Amino acid sequence: MEKRILRKNSGNRFGKTAFYDIMTAKRAETTARAKRAGVAQSHGRTLENKDGRMGKVLSINQYVRAQSLDEAYTLCQKKNNVVIGGMLWLKMQKRPVGTAIDLCDLGLDSIAETETEYRIGAMVPLRALEMHEGLAALTDGAMEQTVKHIVGVQFRNCATLGGSLWGRFGFSDVLTLFLALDARVVLHHAGEMPLADFAQLPRTTRDILTEVIVPKAAGRVVYLSQRNISTDFPVLTAALAGRDGNYTCVIGARPMPAAVFTDDKGILGQGITEDSARAFAEDIASRAVFGSNTRASADYRREICKVLVRRAALALAKEG
Q1: Is residue 45 helix, strand or coil?
Q2: Would you tell me which of 84, 218, 249, 253 could form a disulfide with 181, CB atoms 3.0–4.6 Å apart?
Q3: Which residues contact residue 201 at a Cβ distance below 8 angstroms, ignoring those fewer than 6 apart?
C-alpha cells in the first residue's frame, strides 16, 4: 500500500505537492517490489501491469550515435544490436537490445532533387514527405494521402522513411506507395536495388538503409486505403500506377507485406472504363492472397480489394 503524504497547497489538500509525494512513494514501492522479485530495474526490463504483476518491456543496454556509416554497419552485424530509426514501432516490442544504433548524425535527413529523380534520406520523417511540394506534384497528392492517416502529426514528425520501409510491416501504407512508384533503395553494403527486391530479402539481413530513390518517370499514381477509423492501421491499402500504357497495382495490409501485380492480361490496355476497371479489380482480387486478423477477415479484404482497385483505376483515368 503506497504511503500518501498530503500537504496543503493554496487551500487545496490535493495540490501539486501532494501529487508529487504520491507519485514518489508509488515509484519507491514499485522499485522495492522489483527488487523483491529479483528484477534488474535499472535495465528497464520490467513494468508494472495493472494487476500489479511485472511484465517485460523493451530494454536497451547501450545507445550509440554512429559517426559514420561504416561504424553503424559494423555495429549492426551483431544479432542483438538494432538501428532504431524513429524508434516508434521498436519501443512497442518486448525484447532486449544490446546496442541501439542512432543514425541522426549521418546527414540522412534530407530530400535532394535532380533532373531525373528524388533522393530521400532514410532518416527523413514521414511528415516531411507529407508536406513536400515536389513529391506532392510528382504523385498528384498520393504522397500526402499515403501518410496523413498514420496516427498523428507528432508521430509522423518522428517516424522515418527508412524505418517504415526496413520493417516491411504487414500494415505499411508507405511500402505500398513506394512499390507503386518503382522506387529503389540504397544499402550501405549491398548497394542499390529495386525496392521490390529489397522487400523480398530475408529479415535476418544485416545492412544499413541509407537512401530511397524515386524516379520522376514514375508516371501517374493513385493511393487508397480502407480503415475502420481514420488513424487506425489500414484494413487494406491499394496503389495503382500507370506509365507508358503499363499498369502496376500494389496491395498492402493484407495483413502481409505489400505485393505487386501487373496487368498481365492487358485488361486496361485499351483504356480505362467502368467495365475494364471492374474486370481489372476482379482479376487483382483473385490473384492476391489475404489473411484474417482482428481488423478484418480474408473474405472481407478480398471484397474491399475489388472496390479500392476499381476506384483507383477510375481515378487514374480522370487524372489522365
Answers
A1: coil
A2: 218
A3: none
Q: What is the predicted pLDDT for the residue at 306?
A: 98
User: How confident is the model over 12-63, as pLDDT tens digits?
Assistant: 444 544 544 555 555 555 455 544 444 333 344 444 455 545 457 888 999 9
Cβ–Cβ under 8 Å, residues 109 and 204:
no
Range of the domain at 298: 223-320
Task: Check the CA dihedral 197-240-236-89 and report its sign.
Answer: positive
Return the closest-CA partner of residue 69 out of 236, 190, 182, 150. 190
Alpha-carbon span 269 to 204, nearest angstrom:
40
Instruction: Give domain status of residue 137, yes or no.
Output: no
Does residue 56 lie in a domain region? Answer: no
First-to-last CA distance in the chain? 69
The structural domain count of the chain equals: 2
Residue 252 lies in a domain: yes
Burial class (CB in 10 A: 0-12, 13-18, 19+), 153: exposed
Whether omega before 255 lies within 30 degrees of 0, making that bond cis, reads yes
- Is the four-CA dihedral 110, 230, 182, 83 of positive or negative sign? positive
pLDDT in tens, 56-96: 788 899 999 999 999 999 999 999 999 998 888 788 888 89
pTM > 0.85? no
Residue length of the chain: 320
CATH number of the domain to which 274 belongs: 3.30.390.50
The grid cell for 108 is 540522412
Q: Are 310 and 280 in contact (CB under 8 A)?
A: yes
